[in-house]
Amino acid sequence: MATPACPEPFVDHELSINLDSTFAFEGPEKLLEIWFWKSESVLPESAPVGGLRSIARESWAKMLDLVSCKILSMKSSRYMDAYLLSESSLFVFPHKLILKTCGTTTTLACLEELFTMAQSICAMGSKEIYRVFYSRRSFMFPEKQIHVHKDWKHEVSLLNQHFSLGKSYVVGNFDSDDHWYLYVGGEEQDHPSAGSSADQTFEILMTELDPECASKFIYSRKPGDDIGEQDDLGHELGWETMMETELDTVFQSPRVNTHLPSPSLSDVSEDEDCMDCKTDDNCLQASANFEFINDAFAFTPCGYSSNSICSNVAGGYYYTLHITPESGWSYASFETNYPFNETVDVITVLTKVLKIFKPKKFSLTLIEEISDEQHLTGKQLVGCDLILKELGYKRNEKAVYDLKNEYNLLYMNFRSG
């Protein structure tokens, strides 16, 4: 399959200057992940080069209007496009998309428009897609939600209208204010796929952040403040925050600079960014130097979001963070599909993130594809109690699910003290 040309980086300068997050309150995100096809190698012949990536930015913006969020900026690699939104993130791959939105956004309101857009590249209805995941933590302010997001049963009902073979789960103590919802739909297989590529998604959902840690995401910048047409204060401060908190070194040694900065700071040309990858899939375990293109933004008066996408290793790897630091409802999330290995293991990344935010409570989720390969990520997390005890955390809950004979779910919940 031919590789599409990378789109030019994009920044909505006017939105960046004037975006006011004073009244933002609901940190926990709604996470929608739709796989139209199992991989980019099986796109139908009728689909254009690039698959979903061939859909114009203006079309994504129209869809996001239905979700009640805007595109702040966009960065691309050879493998994917990453949109930083006024409320979290959108990642577009040739064969799938990931939409993550916080606040009172109406994530599921975009489904009809999304499949209308998809019809423009391939005659496919929502019942024919390969896989769909929809998940969210319990809301802090559920009464503020609108559309179907007021009630999980209403969300599931809408999802079932669009997707086949849907199953829904409520994970964790339902009587607490800290449980997790998951919906899975799409094709169902009797056995795991032979030679599968071992897809996985790892999330850390943190609440009651340490006040000193949270203060690093509170800014003196006010809506309308700017430093010139060629620069962007929101992205400048975002990149400075990323370096100051070491969120740019989650997967690498701090002494190794393997990152490309946000759009307003990057000196790397698109030709360099989109050069042929020198590392193939077989080198994943041997490669410790994943290079990430970063797009970070500091909201005013507080809050932070960043997308980081791998530019030198095939597979469409990313990590993304979103922080609402307000006292009383502080929240931070970390999500990645990074292929953890012996060089960079999941426990190392988990402890790094926890030390940055020092939450009083957190949950972690791992959705891991069952494959022929042996994966240690889930086993390492199951056995992480002693390591986290040294950081002052005690496990409240652990749950393991077999999802449609193809994925495993691990959910764990911890609190300090």
UniProtKB/TrEMBL annotation:
<dbReference type="InterPro" id="IPR048283">
    <property type="entry name" value="AdoMetDC-like"/>
</dbReference>
<dbReference type="InterPro" id="IPR016067">
    <property type="entry name" value="S-AdoMet_deCO2ase_core"/>
</dbReference>
<keyword id="KW-0210">Decarboxylase</keyword>
<keyword id="KW-0456">Lyase</keyword>
<protein>
    <recommendedName>
        <fullName>adenosylmethionine decarboxylase</fullName>
        <ecNumber>4.1.1.50</ecNumber>
    </recommendedName>
</protein>
<comment type="similarity">
    <text>Belongs to the eukaryotic AdoMetDC family.</text>
</comment>
<keyword id="KW-0745">Spermidine biosynthesis</keyword>
<keyword id="KW-0670">Pyruvate</keyword>
<comment type="pathway">
    <text>Amine and polyamine biosynthesis; S-adenosylmethioninamine biosynthesis; S-adenosylmethioninamine from S-adenosyl-L-methionine: step 1/1.</text>
</comment>
<keyword id="KW-0704">Schiff base</keyword>
<keyword id="KW-0068">Autocatalytic cleavage</keyword>
<keyword id="KW-0865">Zymogen</keyword>
<dbReference type="InterPro" id="IPR001985">
    <property type="entry name" value="S-AdoMet_decarboxylase_euk"/>
</dbReference>
<dbReference type="InterPro" id="IPR018166">
    <property type="entry name" value="S-AdoMet_deCO2ase_CS"/>
</dbReference>
<keyword id="KW-0949">S-adenosyl-L-methionine</keyword>
<dbReference type="Pfam" id="PF01536">
    <property type="entry name" value="SAM_decarbox"/>
</dbReference>
<keyword id="KW-0620">Polyamine biosynthesis</keyword>
